[in-house]
Amino acid sequence: MKAASFVTGLFAASMLATPAFAQTPPKPKLIVAISVDQFSTDVFNEYRAGFTSGLKRLTGGIVFPRGHQSHAATETCPGHSTILTGGRPSRTGIIANDWQNPALERKTKDGKPIFEVYCAEKPGAVGSNAADQEISTQFLRIPTLGDRMKAMTPATRVVAVSGKDRAAVMMGGKTADTTIWWIGKAFGTYAGKEASLPPTLAAINARATAAIAKPLIQKLPAGCASHARAVPVSTTETVGTLKTRKAGNAGGWRATPEFDAMTLDVALAATNQLKLGKGEATDVLAISFSATDYVGHTFGTSGAETCAQMAALDATLGRLFSTLDKMGTAYAVVLTADHGGHDLPERNAANGLPAAERVDIMLSAQAVGGRLAKQFSLADNALIGRAPFGDMYLRASVPADKRAAVRDAAVAFYRAHRQVVAVFTKDELIAAQPPAGPVDEWSLIERAKASFDAERSGDFLVLLKPYVTPIPDASFGYVATHGSPWGYDRRVPILFWWKGAAAFEQPNAVETVDILPTLASLIGLPVPASEIDGRCLDLVAGAESNCGK
Ligand code: ZN
């Protein structure tokens, strides 16, 4: 902590000079930045006492249990864009996984018009969020930690690896040496950048193919028995009991611990290839583990599946740290998440939260836009939107003389619905003040402003009440999700660790945008405050501080 006054500072320095100095973080040769997709503070708190390996090590470091992905659009792409840039989505430009551009004239391969823009697409490519999508960093408006380090010291090496393209892209940035993600059947990279892949990647991909081809029978870990209770989600399906994954189910494989384990194998292969931490400059290894998110969406966050996933994640992180220990490199770790999450309403309603429910499908842009088309005698559906909440856009085909009236009618309809807590128009968001004060106490419009971009955001934004799960029907394979402005989706742990770090815990709310300036302080990287939204977090338990004046 910073000393409260000069006198206190002198006192602390004279009494604690040696220990305080010893606590000052050594300049790391390698920064290891980890994101665990959908690792909410709620899940972290539920399991933290039981960690025995990698997560135990991190909980013995500097713990901010109430980190915040502070914006309203708590999705993967915006969340990952904040972690290593210091910017909220309003600054990174990554306001959602997908947004709409009503002026876009693109068609899918089978000829359907599509207005959707994927956050990590290469603009101009056909389709969106599809297997044939070309991936790029072009929508990210600001540099990542790695981009800044390489600009200052070109010898810096930057590697980003994830189960998801958008996570690797947003953490790695525009100048990363190696960016690797899972592409349906194998790990790969940007089109034309295949030469950057580690030579051992083919062997890892062969193991992944073999693993997918076999059924996976997971053993229920000790301590998970109390979580194993079947919860019906449709007339034929239940979740909660850790079932066997069927052979050949590549999508289901992502919701198993093997996915994270192989993501780590890829990250270590790239680390060896580029000799991270062994060169003259400090290097960056960014890893986003995706399995916790797929487990959360497929099975919810409170069953045997998440319990087993937490045990496996703990072990996978343990393997990462023991491998880095053997390399003998001085490394500093930060771990956080791109957003939190919320359990499925069926289990919540059964376990003391009767208010939990699923969203009314009549809130979809399709349904509301169809109703407006009739009301205003329009030739086409009036609205475009991806989900029954979030950014909503008027179609370009709505005539100029009717646009204001159609928008007002849409806003009035959403505002009157019992599951809607607020609707903000684009004009209201443009006029709103930027967020200020403690992040956990921000108003709803402040949260919305933090993921608003005048060019990319909708004509209005629909926010649902707490505990309304925005998946109308659980029979699609996704039973639970995130994406709301509520605490369960905004709160994520932020954990720092390096060898010799003195443990302390700061229970007050901080933000993931604080990570970039904090890491920058450890390596002497200048970052102008005007270019970011975060602030340096004091990681030293005592009068010393890693944050300069
Ligand atoms: Zn995510």
Helix content: 25-40%
For this structure, what is the CATH class of the largest domain?
Answer: Alpha Beta
What percent strand?
15-25%
State the total count of DSSP E strands: 22
- What form results from the Cα inertia axes? globular
Based on the coordinates given, report the CATH architecture of the largest domain. Answer: 3-Layer(aba) Sandwich
Question: How is the main sheet built?
Answer: 10 strands, mixed
Kindly list the characteristics that best describe this protein.
549 residues, alpha/beta, Alkaline Phosphatase, subunit A, Gyrase A, domain 2, 2 domains, 19 helices
Explain this structure.
This protein has 549 residues and is of the alpha/beta class. The chain has two domains: 30-94 and 140-352 and 485-531, Alkaline Phosphatase, subunit A (3-Layer(aba) Sandwich); 360-418 and 420-464, 2-Layer Sandwich (Gyrase A, domain 2). It has 19 helices and 22 strands. The strands form six sheets. Strands 1, 2, 7, 8, 9, 12, 13, 20, 21 and 22 form a ten-stranded mixed beta sheet that branches. Strands 15-16-18-17 form a four-stranded antiparallel beta sheet. A two-stranded antiparallel sheet has the order 3-6. Strand 8 (178-183) and strand 9 form a beta hairpin. Helix 4 (76-83) runs parallel beside helix 7 and helix 11 (291-299) packs antiparallel against helix 12. The chain starts with 5 loop residues before the first helix and ends in a 26-residue tail after the last helix. The relative contact order is 0.20. It binds zinc ion (ZN). Zinc ion binds at residues 37-38, 76, 293, 338-339.
